[in-house]
Amino acid sequence: MNTLLFDLDGTLTDPREGITRSIAYALERMGIAPPPSNELVFAIGPPLRASFARLLGTESDIAVERAVALYRERFADVGLFENRPYDGIDEALAKLADSGARLFVATSKPQVYARRIVEHFALHAHFVDVHGCELDGTLEDKRDLLDYMIAHHGIAAPRAAMIGDRGPDMRAARHHGLAAVGALWGYGTREELLEHGAQALCEAPEALGESLGNLRPSQTPR
Question: Within this chain, do residues 55 and 124 fall inside the same structural domain, yes or no?
Answer without folding.
Answer: no
